Amino acid sequence: MPKRKGAKGTKVTLKSAKKAIRMTPDGRRRLTLSNMGITIFPKCLLKLTNVDELDLSRNLIQKLPDNIGNFSSLRWLDLHSNRLESVPESIGNLVGLTHLNLSNNCLTAAGLPFSLGFLTSLKSLNLGMNQLDSLPPTIAALDSLQELGLFDNLFIKLPEFVAVLSNLTKVNMKRNPLSYAQEDGEGIKEKSGPEEDVYLVHESSLCKTCLKRCKQQRERLTRGGGGGDMFEDKRMRTYLGLMVPNSVATLNQDVWRIRKPGNEPIKCC
């Protein structure tokens, strides 16, 4: 992996990038350059025509190159936790892309191109933790889309195209200023399963708003106030009149006790 250069970030060269490519268990070529303090998208990466997966998350990138669409081999692109304010039109040329993560950036509705609708192979699109209040209507053309993350944005209503996408099984709209009916979950598709991915990020990589939110969450957990959406208070179930085996039984652990209303235990024979 390329070596870090402190606060100034990392100088990524074509040679160092080639050395960082790894094969995934399913035979794809993956390049991980996450959390390296990169401030400018390394244009030399566009010469790596054989890379299938690219992870540039948790850096300080503010802008993507206009010719990012030349990265035609990409199937998986992770740019979460950067400082992106917009996405170039050419991203629509990545027609083989199946997973795109743009969460935790500075994107607004004006910064999303209509060409996102050309990514018809896309199965997962994460736009959470941005400043979005609407989406390009062309996203209705993403027939293969299965999961859509829109959490922690500025939506006041559910995008209309959600009802059109037949393969969509999960839409995360949590923590948006939705109207009352939609906030209760009306019209929101969501299958049971694990919550959205949680990433470990150093405090220095968070914006002031996210850092404040994390500190408030940590304070609630410390005070024993529960974990909100991310954590559940797991307690042992209790049953009236019964004592669980292997708890406080003083005789044979295989014998259950039945307790009277007056809390006097009756020993079973």
DSSP strand content: 5-15%
Largest sheet: 8 strands, mixed
Structural classification:
little secondary structure
Overall shape: it is globular
Runs with pLDDT <50, length 5+?
1-7, 183-197, 225-236, 241-257, 259-264
Structural write-up:
- This protein has 269 residues and is largely without helices or strands.
- Helix content is 10%, strand content 11%.
- The chain has helices at 14-20, 180-183, 208-222, and strands spanning 21-23, 29-32, 53-55, 76-78, 99-101, 124-126, 147-149, 170-172, 258-259, 265-266.
- The strands form two sheets. It has an eight-stranded mixed β-sheet with strand order 1-2-3-4-5-6-7-8. Strands 9-10 form a two-stranded antiparallel sheet.
- A hairpin with a 5-residue loop joins β9 (258-259) and β10.
- It is globular.
- The termini are far apart.
Write the layout of secondary structure elements.
Elements: H1 14-20, E1 21-23, E2 29-32, E3 53-55, E4 76-78, E5 99-101, E6 124-126, E7 147-149, E8 170-172, H2 180-183, H3 208-222, E9 258-259, E10 265-266
Parallel strand pairs: 2-3, 3-4, 4-5, 5-6, 6-7, 7-8
Antiparallel strand pairs: 1-2, 9-10
Question: Descriptors for this entry?
Answer:
269 residues, little secondary structure, eight-stranded mixed beta sheet, 3 helices, globular
Short description:
The protein is 10% helix and 11% strand.
